[in-house]
Amino acid sequence: MNQQTAQIDAHSAPNHERSPGQPVNHNEDANHALSIRVRDLNLWYGNNQALKNINIDIYQKNVTALIGPSGCGKSTFLRCLNRMNDLIRSVRVQGLVEMDGRDVNDAKMDEVALRRRVGMVFQKPNPFPKSIYENIAYAPRMHDLVSRKAEQDELVEQALRDAGLWNEVKDKLQEPGTSLSGGQQQRLCIARAIAVKPDVILMDEPTSALDPISTATIEDLMDKLKKQFTIITVTHNMQQAARVADYTAFFHLGEMIEYNDTRMMFSNPHTKKAEDYITGRYG
Ligand SMILES: Nc1ncnc2c1ncn2[C@@H]1O[C@H](COP(=O)(O)OP(=O)(O)OP(=O)(O)O)[C@@H](O)[C@H]1O
Ligand SMILES: [Mg+2]
């Protein structure tokens, strides 16, 4: 028996025939309409290969968590989904990233439209140096989603309500976004991301700079937002992945080692590497 077989035998058997990209075990509570299909995705920064043959199906209106040690390619992978890696000169990408059946790397794909459909929230809250109101209203105006002032006001209020921030800021909408606390700023950035009505929201360690109460608020928010949006989040916090994610993907040295129903990933991982990482044996 080779080492790989031995590893798999020691762990759970998959409960269905899988094709590349599918999770090892299905989560019965999750939605399974396909949002993003990634096939044989490889990415190099110069000569350094950062993503190796990634295959994953990401489902709509779920939370999918990406976990794995520092430098394993999680942020790089997220950036492939809205072509933010295009902004880095040394990058070369091979393989397919399909969103709602369309190849995002197709020359005909409108990058501005793509980034409207795939929003992003970063580790460090980064409000624009503008008012709370303008932080939300600016992008929808640029994308012609609102014309009249009343429409804009309504959209700003709705985005702030959906991000759980309205009650805290409704009386000071003209104050600078940067005057808010870190946790409030992160919710402002979430409000800004959802204001353009994206399909997918990418979150790269969205709570790692926040205190435990703000973190809990954002976790609750993710649970609510997944009713409207597909969320893909990166976290180094295993408890957070276990709490918020329907599916979890474990990355290691540029490879996606395991993609599984979150409960199975944390209770009975399919691969030894995922088990070692989750139980803190390395990473
Ligand atoms: N702009 C870049 N130019 C060159 N190499 C890069 C660049 N960004 C990332 N890399 C390299 O690609 C690999 C994956 O990095 P990435 O930032 O995707 O990891 P990560 O899993 O997000 O790590 P972390 O958990 O620390 O955020 C690393 O080897 C990193 O050094
Ligand atoms: Mg990262």
TrEMBL record:
Pfam families: ABC_tran (PF00005). InterPro entries: AAA+_ATPase, ABC_transporter-like_ATP-bd, ABC_transporter-like_CS, P-loop_NTPase, PstB-like. GO terms for molecular function: ATP binding. SUPFAM superfamilies: P-loop containing nucleoside triphosphate hydrolases. Residues 36-278 form the ABC transporter domain. It comes from the Bacteria. Signal peptide: none annotated. Residues 1-28 are annotated as: Disordered. Keywords: ATP-binding, Nucleotide-binding, Phosphate transport, Transport. NCBIfam families: 3a0107s01c2. PANTHER family: ABC TRANSPORTER I FAMILY MEMBER 17 (PTHR43423:SF1). This is Phosphate ABC transporter ATP-binding protein PstB. It comes from Modicisalibacter luteus.
